[in-house]
Structure formats: C-alpha cells, structure tokens
Amino acid sequence: MNAILSLREVSKSFDKTPVLHPLSFDLQPGERICILGPSGCGKSTLLQIVAGLTQASGGGVFIDGKPVEQGSLYVPPEKRPINMVFQDYALWPHMTVRQNMAYGLRRQKISKQEMNARLGRLQELLRLNGLLDRRPSELSGGQQQRVGIARALATEPAILLMDEPLSNLDIKLRTDMRNELAALLGQLSIATLYVTHDMMEAFAIADRILVLRDGAIDQLAEPHQLFERPASPWVAQLMGYHNRLDAVVWPNESNAADSAVQLAEANIAGICSKLPAQSAAGKQGTIMLHPESITVLDEGEPFSWASGVYLAEQVASYAGTEAMKRGERYNLLAAEVQQAIYEGVRWRLIVKLKDGQLVHTLHERHCPEGGRVGLLFPAERTMIYLKVV
Ligand SMILES: Nc1ncnc2c1ncn2[C@@H]1O[C@H](COP(=O)(O)OP(=O)(O)OP(=O)(O)O)[C@@H](O)[C@H]1O
C-alpha cells in the first residue's frame, strides 16, 4: 500500500535550537497515528509542518507520493489536501454553526445541492441537529469541538490533523468525547495524525502511536506493542510502568526474551528490550514494573518459598488462573510493607525489597505496616534495560 503521507528526515530548528531531529515515518490511507509526548517535545511543530503552517528546516514531506515540501519546493497550506482541528476550536465567533462548517467549502467548486448534502451528513454524524443557526458562544465546549471537527471534515480532506482536540474540555466530557471520537474516526476511516499527551486518548484513537521525546521518535508501534514491549525506560514510564528499580543484568544473548536479572539478592527472569553489541553480563541495568502486573501475596504457603522464578502451574492458585499459560514464568520477591494508602477501590502498598528499594503495588486488602508479603509478577511483564554509560 502506498502511504498517503510520508515524512523523510524532517527536521526543525528555531534560532539554531533543534526542536525536531531528522525523523521519518509513513501514514497509510485510513490509518490513525497518535503523536504522544510531554509538553514541549515538538508535537505541534510536527503537525504544523505537515499542514504547511510552519516550514521544515530540512527533509521532505510527501502527500500521496508527491512532494509538498522538499528543498526549495513548498506548497502552501490551502493547496494541501489537509484540514486541521485545533485545541481551542478556532471557530469564527461572528458566524453561525452552519457558516463555520461551510467556511472551507467556499474555495471548492461544488454545487449548492452537494454542499447541503455534505452539511446534512455532517450534522447527523456529529449530532449538531438544532444547533446550525447558533453562534459558537451559544454552544458548550463539547459542541464547539464537534463543530470544529465537522468544519474540518466538510472539505473531505485526504488527511485530518488534530492538535489536542479534547484538552480544553473538562475531564468527564473529555472521556465521553474520546470514546465518541474514536468511534467516529473508525467509521470515517480517514488518515489522521492526532496529537495528544494523554495515553488513554492515544490508546482509544490510534492504530499506531508515535512516541516523541525531545524532538525524536522513541518508538512507533501499535498500542499493545507499545504497552507490552516499551522500547526504553522512558516509554515504559509513559505506559504506566511506574516502578523503576536498579538491578544487575545477565542478558541471554541468543534470546532476549529469556534474560536473567539479579534484583534484591534474588535471580529473576525478564525481557531485555535490546541486546547489547557485546556481552553485557553482570552490567548495571534498570527494571521497569507496572503496579498492575504485580500480585501481592499476603498469606499462605509462598512465604516458605525462596524468592526466584516459578512456573505458572506452580503459582496458579496464588496468581489466579486466567491468562496464565503452562510454562509461563513468574518471579517471586519477598518484601516488607512500608506504607498502605487507601485509594477507594484498592489499597496502594508501598513495599520494601531486601535491598531497600521501594515498589508500588495495588492490593484489594489492607496489609499492616511492617508485615511480610510476596510480590508475584510475570517474567513477560518484567522489562529489563541496560544502563547506557
Ligand atoms: N515559533 C517558535 N519560535 C521559537 N520556539 C518555538 C516556536 N514554536 C515552538 N517553539 C519551541 O519548540 C518546542 C516544541 O514546541 P511544540 O509546541 O511543538 O511542543 P508540543 O510538544 O506541542 O508542546 P505542548 O504539548 O505544550 O503544546 C518548545 O520548546 C517551544 O518553545
């Protein structure tokens, strides 16, 4: 399949300060890519270069295989088959909803009949019935954003750009709109680049997520790949792996998915994201663990067991049998409860490993401070990264 949008070595500097390092990726027809990253990492700049609102400092942008920016060639925004939805809606305050929606169509040579048909379809799709004669000031935030989306779709662009379209809405409305938008974009199947700093939004909307960090792509992958195999501790942190622990790593150089780690005086198993060029046995590393993937054992037999690696069938009665496969490995670590914090549905237990490192876990019961617990977590979810020195 030919990409609808291709970026090749696109870079951008403002006053000699690099904001985007040369980056390349393709957006396929009908695909939705979310650009995820913290404030200031260059997300909006990237979107604006694609839209033609900002010129790149280097590299090329291609739409449907044809350059729109390359060397001295630069196609202005209005000549690109692209439309954008902005964070602050950017509606014309003096125009009605209908006039706002039709605004982009004035350049297109379409009949009045076709225009009315398109506006009618969008009015249905975005649930704007009864609002067409209102001005933006007479609409709620969610309704204003739906008008912004309808306006962007009216010209039937090949590519839709969305720059944090939900970030001005309150939390409840944002969640509702997120699900609504995910359904809508799925239905439209229009190639979309969607900027957000909200992981849940990216998960709901994206076919693939592009993680941008300091103007460079850290990882571009499907949501489940990003969650299951975060390429760096940084991406892991973004995915909610909030436990970052120091460990000694013994990578298995023929099979990265079967590496050993020494953590808190125990040997455990995990997945090494990248194998080192040369033997890294015994090197310092980092382990990232998601609090949700840790089962806290606070009573029963496992206390007599040594910390280490166990097979699924050995721990099935403690870890629950769903999603467990025979032969799958689990790590068990002894720990002591440092603090128990009530969070409504569950308790957050902050526990101390034998080497003094702290781990955050979630548990359905309270555990007394100073009490002994076992932490059981799958090797599959134990992410190992070698420290770059
Ligand atoms: N016109 C400009 N002149 C100088 N610096 C700029 C300009 N536009 C953006 N920058 C800088 O480029 C960097 C990236 O900005 P950008 O708006 O692309 O980030 P972002 O990831 O979209 O952030 P946010 O999530 O806060 O909107 C920031 O450090 C910003 O200050």
From TrEMBL:
Gene assigned in the entry: potA_2
Keyword Metal-binding listed: no
SMART domains given in the database record: AAA (SM00382)
Domain of life where this protein originates: Bacteria
Key words of the record: ATP-binding, Cell membrane, Ion transport, Iron, Iron transport, Membrane, Nucleotide-binding, Transport
Protein name: Spermidine/putrescine import ATP-binding protein PotA
Organism listed in the record: Paenibacillus montaniterrae
ABC transporter domain segment(s): 5-239
UniProt-listed InterPro entries: AAA+_ATPase (IPR003593), ABC_SmlMolc_Importer (IPR050093), ABC_transporter-like_ATP-bd (IPR003439), ABC_transporter-like_CS (IPR017871), ABC_transpr_FbpC (IPR015853), P-loop_NTPase (IPR027417)
Keyword Transport tagged: yes
